[in-house]
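Supplementary Methods. Inverse-folding protocol.

Structures were first reduced to a discrete structure-token string of length 147. This string, shown here, constituted the complete conditioning input.
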């Protein structure tokens, strides 16, 4: 029989592994994301978020990005880029500059969350207006453009 401590360690290891998988599908910068998208023949999902102040952004993170079905779908079909604009958390200067440049090009009205599906060449394939849907509905939206 397994001890409680072994089960806890196993659950912790599974949680950490799932966190690594989410990070593995996220690109840290858009030029790299476009290169990766071209190499892998995937679209880029660009998410503008206010992670520590925007209630809808926080719900999108919880209901969609943290969902295991979405994570699996994204790993197989997307390169995900998140441009975060937190108010309480400080971003590095380079990251903040990069996010501002992305906002100038793809989110000039400053909407949060703004969710765009981009072609590997940078053109917009579609946009999604999030209003508390679940991952199943979001994946169905994405499939219209991907599959």
């Amino acid at each position: 029989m397994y001890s409680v401590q072994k089960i806890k360690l196993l659950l912790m290891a599974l949680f950490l592994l799932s966190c690594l998988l989410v990070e593995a599908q996220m690109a840290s910068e858009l030029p790299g994301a476009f290169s990766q998208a071209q190499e892998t023949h995937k679209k880029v999902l660009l998410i503008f978020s206010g992670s520590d102040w925007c209630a809808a952004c926080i719900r999108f993170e919880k209901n969609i990005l943290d969902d295991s079905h979405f994570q699996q779908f994204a790993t197989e079909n997307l390169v995900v880029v998140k441009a975060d604009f937190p108010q309480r958390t400080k971003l590095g200067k380079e990251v903040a500059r990069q996010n501002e440049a992305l906002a100038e090009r793809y989110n000039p009205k400053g909407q949060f969350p703004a969710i765009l599906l981009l072609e590997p060449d940078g053109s917009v394939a579609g946009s999604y207006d999030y209003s508390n849907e679940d991952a199943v509905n979001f994946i169905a939206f994405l499939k219209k453009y991907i599959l």
